[in-house]
Write a structure and sequence with these properties.
Strand content: 15-25%
Largest sheet: 5 strands, parallel
Radius of gyration: 22 Å
Structural class: alpha/beta
Bound molecules: flavin-adenine dinucleotide
Number of strands: 26
Length: 423
């Protein structure tokens, strides 16, 4: 892999997501050699993927080159590769571009979409975990509008204009709201040959309320906002089958739709090679101690979504959201330097900064420890937090410009089918 040997210990980090990137930053120009490996050459800001899917933002405003992040780190290297296997006995990894030895290995591979073993849904639904997948959804939505405009029958048109989103967690809720805004603001202006009333957005959720990880207050408010935008919300509804045409649910609900967006869950993305006891099978996450050390391995660590660290406050592990990943990345950087200096390590304690979701213009919900609120102020806070969390000044400026432009003009300007989606 063309990484030079040095006198410093080599730390190999697999994954340039929130956890990996924050770890890399903490190790900048320290007396260690850092090798960051990712199968993409960019960091993805996943919380805004739904805006790419719904034509609100271009992908390059939410993605950031990993090499640019480490450009001033003289001790760091980046390799574009997929890690295929870990050989812990020889402290080595096997990647798509060759082998590499490590002194310390950090696994920060995040999660992948969970279809709960349903092959039909996996084949025909649209996941939204990466930039290419978000672009697929954008293309499909716009292609469906074009096909609806030339449909031969009302039934055919209905299938193109029925958008079914499965999973009413923050991702599903945000996407449903954004697609509803396309219906309310874009369809009447750009598609004179379509009747907006023919377009339906269905949000299906297996639990008894939307936003199950958030407070009841947030759920109720979000559902009200969604209904106000025209989204049809069905709770206690589990999708059983989808063949690319008909969605079948447990609630005897069957609807014709050319688009099923799957936002119903994620599962860990572990790498082959460690003992089976190191992985919690149900969640596909590595069992780690309070220092993010993988069970039974002194020099292998896991951070972020892929790590399962049961604590008193979080017996089932931390929520799979950005903050634990960022905080674990930061602490592990300091702990690795302490480990190398033979100093005692500091245990991880999660600082919950609250959670939030936006449903559309002026509509969001925020849960803080002692205060829960929704509406315009929540939406403003949501925008500010997401803007400041984006990686890179350029991205922040572009997103701020786009949001301002879209807010004033009720527009979503990235309505481009650049790479048509083929089912
Ligand atoms: C659509 C969506 C919306 C979300 N919205 C929010 C939100 O609003 N707020 C919030 O806090 N959280 C949100 N999350 C969750 C949040 O994005 C994750 O918790 C966070 O990204 C976890 O960070 P991570 O570093 O553990 O993993 P990730 O950010 O997923 O990064 C993992 C990295 O590992 C790389 N990788 C994986 N396997 C390999 C391999 N074998 N070889 C090489 N590279 C590999 C991937 O390419 C990726 O770059 C959302 C997630 C999604 C999908």
């Amino acid at each position: 892999m063309n990484i030079p040997d040095t006198k410093h210990p080599r730390i190999v980090i697999i994954g340039g997501g929130f956890a990996g990137v924050n770890l890399v930053k903490t190790l900048a120009n320290k007396k260690v050699q850092v090798v960051l490996i990712d199968k993409h050459n960019y960091h993805t800001f996943q919380p805004l993927l739904y805006q790419v899917s719904s034509s609100g933002l271009e992908p390059d405003s939410i993605a950031y080159p990993l090499r640019k992040i480490i450009k001033k780190h003289k001790n760091s290297f980046f390799r574009l590769a997929e890690v295929e296997q870990i050989l812990p006995e020889s402290n080595e990894i096997i990647t798509s571009i060759g082998h590499l030895t490590y002194d310390y290995l950090v696994i920060a591979t995040g999660t992948k979409t969970n279809y709960f073993g349903n092959k039909a849904i996996e084949s025909y639904s649209m996941p939204m975990k990466s930039v290419p997948q978000a672009l697929n959804i954008r293309s499909l939505i716009l292609q469906n509008f074009e096909k609806a405009a030339i449909a031969n029958s009302a039934k055919e048109r209905e299938a193109y204009l029925n958008f079914v989103i499965v999973g009413a967690g923050p991702t599903g809720v945000e996407l449903a709201g954004a697609i509803a805004e396309l219906k309310n603001n874009i369809l009447p202006r750009d598609y004179h040959d379509l009747n907006p009333n023919d377009m339906h957005i269905h949000l299906l959720e297996g639990a008894d309320r939307v936003l199950p990880p958030m407070s009841e207050h947030a759920s109720k408010k979000a559902e009200t906002f969604l209904k106000r935008l025209g989204v049809k919300v069905s709770c206690n509804t589990i999708v059983k089958h989808y063949d690319g045409k008909t969605v079948t649910t447990n609630a005897d609900l069957a609807m014709e739709s050319e688009t099923l967006i799957w936002a119903a869950g994620v599962t860990g993305a572990p790498i082959h090679g460690l003992k089976s006891e190191a992985i919690m099978e149900r969640a596909n996450r590595y069992n780690v101690n309070r220092f993010n050390q993988v069970e039974d391995y002194a020099n292998i660590f896991a951070i972020g979504d892929i790590a399962l660290m049961p604590t008193e406050a979080y017996p089932k592990g931390h929520p799979q959201v950005a903050q634990p990943a960022i905080q674990q990345g930061n602490l592990l950087g300091k702990n690795l330097l302490r480990l190398i200096d033979k100093k005692p390590l500091k245990p991880f304690v999660y600082k919950d900064k609250g959670s939030m979701a936006t449903i559309g213009r002026n509509k969001a919900v925020v849960d803080l420890k002692h205060y829960k609120f929704g509406g315009f102020f929540a939406w403003f806070i949501w925008m500010f937090v997401h803007l400041m969390s984006l990686v890179g000044f350029r991205n922040r400026v572009i997103v701020l410009f786009n949001w301002t432009y879209n807010y004033i003009n009720f527009d979503k300007a990235a309505r481009l089918i650049i790479r048509p989606f083929k089912k």
